[in-house]
């Protein structure tokens, strides 16, 4: 006999997996594009490497945020709700 | 409508075989089409080199094809081998089919990129044909590794005897293992292809930079392969760890979710790392003096892109070992 609480827990686990799995796609691709353009810009104007690296990292940090949201939601689903 | 187990095993074998070859045909066809398109463009630009370009198009396509040949092998094995009448044969056959089918997509598309760039490079710089072919072969070979990981996981699934394990949650662990390596191979195949494409293009523009360009290409490709290796690791844990028998539905779902999480989570970081490697390699070819700066910013950028893949790995491991 499968109980309701068991089904809820199963759904929470599945939701956590899907949240982190699918949520990891966007930040990964976006951060890669930022790094690609930073490399291009450093290639064109190597003197500004420091400034470009800083801008790249800030941009990537912003794009990372959705990945962190996914992580938070996954952890909430696993351990809190 | 009660069917015996052998019926369900056959259903799973045929469905798995269909999925293996159906999904497995996508990647190689796109990659080979891209190669052929580039070869046509290249011959149009420099018809005198048509012999070399044609040859390298065929070699490049043959490599891209290998991913879908793996899928064909698995599909034929699923169709024509007789599998034991055990209920766990059902997830094994479905998992093996899904794993190899999805796993062939990225490698097929990815291998087409360097082959296309090599064809165009031969039109631009005929003297570099030999080095371009070598570079294309190295780059495409790295693109094939995730498909080979999927092939290995499919073979292990098909040839391991799971009948002594408890049906629940082993069914979910088996399916999760297939899904993890299957999806996990897509991004690494594509990402490795993007880096190799930039290196073939770079060599043909600046033939003198061939050594640093090949070196950084291999470095960048190695980073793109990491997420496929995480997915392989999760598959191995799911296949070889023994799980206690359970009647509840939550433990098997946790294992299935671990496979989905790591598999799909591996796609994005690997593609992003491929973009980063592509940018770095392209500009090292044009501005070799700044190889240190460019390699460093490539690695920093890739490390940041990797982070979401590591989150996925953590969540997958928590799902397997903690909850």
The largest chain-to-chain contact, stated as pair and per-chain residue counts, equals: A-B, 53 and 62 residues
Portion in strands of chain A: under 5%
Give the low-pLDDT segments of chain A.
Answer: none
- Rg for CA atoms of chain B: 21 Å
Mean pLDDT of chain A: 92
In the CATH hierarchy, the architecture of chain A is Up-down Bundle
- Percent of residues of chain B in beta strands? under 5%
The residue ranges of chain B in which pLDDT falls below 50 over 5 or more consecutive positions are none
The level of helicity of chain A is: over 70%
Query: How many structural domains in the coordinates of chain A?
Result: 1
Nearest-integer average pLDDT of chain B: 94
CATH topology of chain A: F1FO ATP Synthase
User: How helical, in percent, are the residues of chain B?
Assistant: over 70%
**Can you tell me the overall shape of chain A?**
rod-shaped
Please give a handful of descriptors for the protein shown:
heterodimer, A: 81 residues, mainly alpha, F1FO ATP Synthase, 88% helix, B: 323 residues, Four Helix Bundle (Hemerythrin (Met), subunit A), 9 helices, flat
